[in-house]
Amino acid sequence: MSDTPQILLAHHLKVLKLPTFLREYDKVARQSAAEGVDHTRYLLRLAELELIDRERRMVERKIKAAGFPAVKSIDSFDFLAIPSLNKMLVLELARCDYINRNENVIAVGNSGTGKTHIALALGLEACRKGRTVGFITASALVHELLEARDEKRLLKLQKQLARFNLLIIDELGYVPLSATGAELLFEVFSRRYERGSTIVTSNLPFDEWTSVFGSERLTGALLDRLTHHVHILELNGDSYRLASARKSRRPQPPEVIQPE
Predict the structure, then answer these.
(1) Is 0.85 surpassed by the pTM of this model?
(2) pLDDT at residue 45, rounded to an integer
(3) CA-to-CA distance for 139 and 169, rounded, in angstroms?
């Protein structure tokens, strides 16, 4: 009979979906008793632990749902390697106020300069602030759109893409698009115009985007929507991925052994 209250408490906390409360209540009770903490502060400690853990789980779910190929942070980006990148603007964007205003971000630069890293880092910050995020390459997105059209579920996919607070479209310009693919991608941007934020990374300057979309009219209409409320990040310079690889392969000088 003495175990009944503990069994009932465990049951109730599970029903109420308070796993941290359940896991920590006994340990926190002993700590609070040893410190002479009253029952109100004891409950406050448990509530704070539950909130912290719930927020951590929420962020983990959002990161998983975003489909990031890797988790990258702003702290791990080498800004000194890409002096053309406006670090203060990146740090400002990390606050995610641009998402509240449905503004866009375009990162343009040579291959290997860290455009995807920056996009992923901004996506991570958005997840940490409770925003819904989606990540996909431009070629993969077009493939999914064409497949959805053939399977008569295009409208459902378009609505799903429009609902993200932040949609990251990576590597626009690496692969030319078919006329149909270009039109479907344009529709994605149009549906998100002033309704959600979009981050685009591209290795091409704007005046070469026509080579991707194949139509000056379509490219002009796309840029008109995409750049209406936009922050542009320029990442020009040598590939620091290549520089890092070269550095790691550089032979080390032989160890000098001093005579005894």
Answers:
(1) no
(2) 87
(3) 9
If DSSP codes are grouped into helix, strand and coil, which group holds residue 136? strand
Residue 13 belongs to domain spanning: 4-50
| Cα gap 48→46, rounded to integer Å | 5
* CB-based contact 103:229 (threshold 8 Å): yes
Cα–Cα distances (Å) from 39 to 19, 24, 31, 48, 176, in that order, read: 20, 15, 12, 14, 65
Let me know whether 15 and 113 are in one domain: no
Q: Are residues 140 and 86 in the same domain?
A: yes
**Residue 28 within a domain:** yes
Which pair of structure tokens corresponds to residue 211?
Answer: 């080579």
Residue type at 53 in one-letter notation:
D
Note whether residue 55 is domain-resident: no
**pLDDT tens digit sequence for 198-240:** 999 999 999 999 999 988 999 999 999 899 899 999 998 665 5
Same domain, yes or no, for 109 and 195?
Answer: yes
Backbone angles phi, psi at 34, to 5 degrees: -65, -30
Is residue 90 domain-shared with residue 174, that is, in the same domain? yes
| DSSP assignment of 180-242 | HHHHHHHHHHHHHTTTSEEEEEESS-GGGTHHHHS-HHHHHHHHHHHTTTEEEEEE-SS-HHH
